Amino acid sequence: MMKAPRYGASRQKACSQCSSAKTKCDRKAGSRCTRCTVRGLSCSYPQAAPRDSTSRSESYNAEQDGHISLVSAGSFSSSDIPCSNSHLEKSAMTEVCNSHIDSPQPRGDNAEPSTAQTVLPGDEFTIQSKTKTTKPASTVSETLSFDNLELRCPIIADDICNRWLNSYVPVPGQQIKQYPAAVTAYIYKILRSYATAAVRGRGVPPFIHHSQIMTSLVNPPLATCLTLVRMCEKLLPGSESVAADVLRREMTSIYQQRAAYDNMTLLAAYQSYLIYSMIFLFILRQNTNSFLRQALIELQDLAGLSSQHGIVCIAEQERARPRWEAWIVAEAKRRTLFTMYLFDSLLCAQDNLPTFLGTELRGLPAPANKRLWRAQTRSEWETAYNVHLADWVRGGFNIDELWPNPAPLDNTALLEKSDRVGQWLENIDEFGTMLYAVTSCTHGG
């Protein structure tokens, strides 16, 4: 009679793939090892389930089924990343492979644990993953379809493309805005935090919606960006120029392919280009490089092209509830656009060039409240949007309501404007708070 094994379950610490390859495995219970994540392999322990242990095995399998790998933790092999220096490529990919996104648990005693989480600078939100106890309808990656979006562009997108000309050839009617030194320093630190968060794998900037980084929905430009920028975290002395060359070639590739992108890919390309540009300024210290000035021109061109595909939901303008997918795209575009304008203003201030008010954006909705932006399910978002429509019966809050008054207002109009600003501030996230701080300290109100 065969002797029963001493242990009911295997004590092997390495996963099957690493065990076969005889390599070190950093896998922990309920997660995938870095090697399998990077190579796209199936990561699992060899299980020798003991008798009468069905429930334990099912619990383990449910945990495995619920796992989601985020792009920023690394989902590409080194061969997918262009690099002109083998030493830099090796060290960069080592940093990517050995780094993990922090996954703090949601607050609250009754909060359900999540297997994947993305942390924004100054805040956190949870990407719920699919488990055996979760209905497919609540899984973001299974319910979102970004086809046939009903969007329109109510502004002149060419004015966005040509904004860089205003500093050299002022247009009649343009209003100069003077940032106080403290506001300029504040913008610098905020935008720098967006760049460093991406470089360190701590999350994504708050102009990228959490659905955009789900494994099944992420677009190639954004996937490449969130992986490629990780090599800038711990650059070896003297390797900054090589890293800059790698990013520069990726930016050039994005811009050259802009005409072939569809709506969603163009948005991802536009967001990626903005992240690369911020890394050039804040991480690689390339503010004296003429390439950054050219990059800003191309960035504004991408912004204009993306806006032409639609930046406002048709239903938004008709005081109706749009599709969740359409709203996600429109809101992400607007947040990216507002961030780009702050980045443009910062570069102009550093070059001692005049900065003009973005009057071409007049009429665009201001950043939405955090309940809408962070909603994890369609039903949660629809409920929040119904409340939004009920709260803003006279029309939503627009970005130009944070600007100086175009004409003197009487006391009644001033009080009404103050009430609307206060209502908007009640439930905004950290991105909206940042915009209000900049506009309030610059224009007052």
Automatic annotation (TrEMBL):
Keyword Transmembrane helix on entry: no
Keywords of this entry: DNA-binding, Metal-binding, Nucleus, Transcription, Transcription regulation, Zinc
SUPFAM superfamilies annotated for this entry?
Answer: Zn2/Cys6 DNA-binding domain
What SMART domains does this protein's entry cite?
A: GAL4
Superkingdom to which the source organism belongs: Eukaryota
Q: Which InterPro entries match?
A: Zn2-C6_fun-type_DNA-bd_sf (IPR036864), Zn2Cys6_DnaBD (IPR001138)
Residues covered by the Zn(2)-C6 fungal-type domain: 14-45
State a single Gene Ontology molecular function.
Answer: DNA-binding transcription factor activity, RNA polymerase II-specific
**Pfam family for this entry, one:** Zn_clus
Q: Which PANTHER family match?
A: FINGER DOMAIN PROTEIN, PUTATIVE (AFU_ORTHOLOGUE AFUA_4G03310)-RELATED, TRANSCRIPTION FACTOR WITH C2H2 AND ZN(2)-CYS(6) DNA BINDING DOMAIN (EUROFUNG)-RELATED-RELATED
Can you name this protein? Zn(2)-C6 fungal-type domain-containing protein
Q: Which organism is it from?
A: Exophiala dermatitidis
